Amino acid sequence: MIDLHYWTTPNGHKITLFLEEAGLPYTVFPVNIGKNEQFEPAFLKISPNNRIPAIVDQAPSDGGEPISLFESGAILLYLAEKTGQFIAQDLRGREEVLQWLFWQMGGLGPMAGQNHHFTRAAPEKLPYAIKRYIDETARLYGVLDRRLADRDFVAGAEYSIADMSIYPWIARHPWQSQDLADFPNVQRWYEAIKARPATVRAYAVAQRINPGAP
Fold first, then answer.
1. CA 123, CA 117: separation in Å to the nearest integer?
2. Could you tell me if 101 and 161 are in contact, meaning their C-beta atoms sit under 8 angstroms apart?
């Protein structure tokens, strides 16, 4: 059983995507970041960076005590290794998955997040910051579009944790002033993942936790 400490953000969606695809049993513990619940001492014990998501695996594969993890990329990698799913088992295939997972963690996520902040949440509209992050988001969409020109999924023919990490950020493209029609390969990939039954179930979890969440 996986305890999932979660809110309805792109990083939170990554983990429900995996859990639904893999069929792992899990229990959701909502952490409402709008109410600053991420700063509660009990949550900080498992996520010292006061960010969701975090998990506690009550039955780790080594048979030992429950293990807790924070950081969405680390959680995806842990779950992929635990189950042997959604990550290639050969050296080259594995590295393809990992480099695109890290591309999302180090590039797309932070840049799109800053895009969200300066275009939607900042108390002062700063044209330089807004343009900078919209332009950088567009550049990253272009990188992804070129990558998907000759393959079904980011790391090749098989759906992987790299796709799961990227999809929830692309799902927020309207927030980022991006038009998927400008990135036809991304659009095709996005629509294919959106239609997966596990994706539908994962986003239904979000609606139960936080009705109206994007």
1. 9
2. yes
